Amino acid sequence: MKKRILLVDDIKFVLDLEKTLLAQIEKELSLDLDIDTASDVDEALKCLESSEYDILITDMNLPDGDGSQIAKSAAQRSSGKMRLVALTSLPVAYEEKREIFDLFLTKPTQPQDLKSDLIKVLQ
Description:
Elements: E1 2-8, H1 12-28, E2 32-38, H2 41-50, E3 55-59, E4 61-62, E5 65-66, H3 67-77, E6 83-88, E7 103-106, H4 111-122
Parallel strand pairs: 1-2, 1-3, 3-6, 6-7
Antiparallel strand pairs: 4-5
Helix pairs in contact: 1-4, 2-3
């Protein structure tokens, strides 16, 4: 079964790293992943309007808002069925929004640790 994932981050390097790790996981676990990316809240909300996703992985600190805006919209659209993951370098600043997410990860993280966390979300 194909899993659709939306990655949201304003730093291209982070998006590329996440895509690379997901590609490794896809191959290792024989998964079928379809990955879209967005670099800000507005772009992510447009993706959510036009497609259905199983998993949202979002940075919290974006140029036009924060990842909780995207997560709330995603949760409403999916009736709570979408897995929601936050990835942030400012965990204290977003502590009160932690309960929105299934997984709340702190940057920086080692690629192997991030890969391990992504595997948990995919299973």
